[in-house]
Design goal:
Distance between the termini: 50 Å
Structural class: alpha+beta
Helix content: 10-25%
Number of helices: 9
Number of domains: 3
Number of strands: 26
Shape: globular
């Protein structure tokens, strides 16, 4: 089986990492006051730093056909000379999906227990732990405890994380049926795009050996109960010399278009994934029509591999033959040594912590911090549960953009590797006939000593109009149709309402919308609102239309703290009639 390329050279020394910032990535968090994740195996294996992620908030919803800006940070770079990289975005909708109410991991056969968070269902994990692992995969010098699909080079102990299947998590495209539907593959090597799209479970069915679930539930804890991975052995399956009824079965494709496949966006390693211009990378997902569901979740995986050997074309034939030898990979050509024997004699062997003689004739060796379980590695993050809704009749044929808020309460040191507040997208370009769905959520259970304004531990946001920029830089933004959009976002005082209404229209309806955006009306409780404490952490303004061309700057009055953050955004509106 072919696999995605895998890992960065120094990953054995890092914690690191992939974090979705919009929609809010969970990193296995639920709703805790602690900075560290309580249980990093609650729903999935992220491989991430335990301080990442955002507490669950009230569920967000997005309309079919609307554009959702997915924003993330990948720690170890992409589209860069330091590593091979693939980023895979997927989604899944199912009635059983839930965030849960406890930090404990879901136990066996508890699909219907609402207390436990759950993404994949029990049947997915049940077949994983009874299905024969893919023995064609490269393991280097890793020794796996058992031979089912729970055990991979990266997960050689078969650790359980929710109902996730470790083999399915670590490899893409996976050769067995997966409930996840592909959105996009972002790769260093676009020559692989044809392969990814043809092999996607969106368009290609999968085959597997199906055994009665009651029998599986009875015998799945037996290490020798391993379901075959091919038709012949499936139809002749037996356990303890007793025949077992099994059927070689086709699992249909998801019957949706293949994923998009594009060049991965460039990012710098070790700076929380900063892309071009120091900004986080984003992918604008146009949510498909016809998939409305109350319970959906987004998954992003980040597969990275070293350039020390040809990971794409390396398979089980290069695995070690013993507990003491390294893998059979020949590194002599990579490092321009005469032959494999010379390379091995000087320590150029792909194994854990090799001692390498760099200088010929000098009997001094240096130990390399290599962990073969992590050279070729997959990181992951997933969103909290969200809803996809059908469009209202009045919005049937219009373009809808989602405008959200990322981040959580605290300064950059307190929230890292999560981020501070900002709007997503920070700059939104629309036409006068488009709609913007303004919505955000947050938590009331951030650590109480995290810095911020208003009631401790709480996330709150609003939007108020700013005076246009006051420190012009450069020339008018010709790329934006001649609109003057360069320079600063504006002052740190909001524009007075009378001036705002002159700018965007003075109707009673406009005034009411501006008040809602600023005051988050109606408030959650009675009392003062000057720090927004009595508002909810969740706010939904609904779809809003900007009917006048211009550049509109806005800010959050609570979080725009001049000492350590700037929560400002802008909307660039073009006159659609001028196209």
């Amino acid at each position: 089986m072919k696999t995605l390329g895998f890992l960065l050279c120094c990953a054995a020394l890092t914690s690191g990492d992939l974090y979705i910032t919009n929609p809010r990535g969970s990193n296995n968090r639920l709703n805790w006051f602690t900075r560290d994740v309580r249980n990093n195996k609650r729903l999935f294996d992220s491989q991430n730093n335990n301080r990442g992620g955002y507490n669950v908030g009230d569920p967000m919803y997005y309309y079919e056909g609307s554009t959702l800006s997915i924003e993330w940070a990948n720690q170890h770079s992409c589209a860069d000379q330091n590593a091979n990289c693939e980023l895979i975005l997927q989604y899944m909708c199912d009635d059983k999906i839930r965030d849960g109410a406890t930090s404990f991991s879901i136990v066996d056969n508890q699909d219907l227990n609402p207390g436990f968070g759950m993404h994949e269902e029990w049947n997915h994990y049940l077949y994983c732990r009874t299905r024969q692992r893919n023995k064609g995969l490269f393991l280097a010098d890793q020794n796996l405890r058992f031979n089912d699909a729970r055990f991979t080079r990266q997960n050689n102990g078969g650790t359980k994380s929710g109902y996730e299947c470790p083999e399915e998590r670590d490899y893409y495209p996976y050769w067995y049926h997966s409930p996840w539907k592909d959105i996009v593959v972002m790769t260093n090597n676009v020559e692989r795009c044809d392969y990814y799209q043809k092999e996607s479970n969106n368009v290609k069915s999968r085959w597997g050996c199906v055994v009665d679930r009651n029998k599986l539930n009875r015998f799945y804890r037996w290490p020798l109960f391993i379901i075959p991975d091919n038709k012949e052995d499936c139809e002749n399956f037996e356990i303890f010399r007793q025949p077992v009824s099994a059927n070689w079965t086709e699992f249909p494709a998801h019957d949706i278009p293949p994923p998009k496949c594009i060049k991965a966006p460039w990012s710098r390693d070790n700076h929380n994934g900063n892309g071009i211009g120091g900004n986080f990378n984003t992918y604008d997902w146009v949510i498909p029509e016809g998939i409305a569901h109350e319970k959906c979740v987004l998954r992003m995986r980040y597969n990275i591999s070293t350039n020390d050997y040809d990971s794409w074309n390396t398979d089980a034939s290069s695995n070690t033959d013993s507990d003491t030898d390294g893998s059979k990979i020949d590194l002599s050509k990579t490092f321009k040594l005469p032959n494999k024997e010379t390379a091995e004699a000087r320590g150029y062997v792909f194994k854990n912590n090799p001692d390498v003689q760099m200088f010929p004739g000098l009997d001094v060796k240096l130990t390399l911090a290599i962990n073969t379980a992590q050279f070729g590695r997959t990181f992951q993050d997933r969103s909290h549960v969200f809803e996809i809704r059908q469009r209202p009749t009045e919005l049937k044929d219009v373009t809808i953009h989602n405008l959200n808020v990322r981040g959580k309460r605290g300064n950059n040191q307190q929230v890292y590797p999560a981020v501070e507040y900002d709007y997503v997208p920070n700059t939104l370009e629309i036409n006068t006939n488009d709609y913007v769905h303004v919505q955000w959520t947050g938590s009331d259970r951030n650590p109480h000593n995290n810095a911020g304004n208003g009631r401790r531990g709480t996330d709150r946001n609003n939007m108020v109009m700013l005076k246009n920029k006051v420190y012009p830089e450069g020339t008018p933004g010709l790329a934006y149709g001649g609109l003057d959009v360069l320079g600063q976002y504006g002052a740190n005082y909001p524009m007075h309402l009378d001036n705002v209404t002159r700018l965007i229209g003075a109707s009673t309806e406009t005034r009411a919308v501006l008040q809602k955006m600023a005051l988050l009306a109606p408030p959650r409780y009675g009392g003062h609102m000057f720090l927004l404490d009595n508002a909810k952490a969740y706010y939904d303004l609904g779809p809003l239309q900007f009917a006048k061309e211009g550049v509109f700057h806005y800010m959050c009055t609570r979080n725009n703290a001049f000492t350590n953050r700037s929560q400002k955004g802008r909307i660039i509106v073009r006159d659609a009639s001028k196209k």
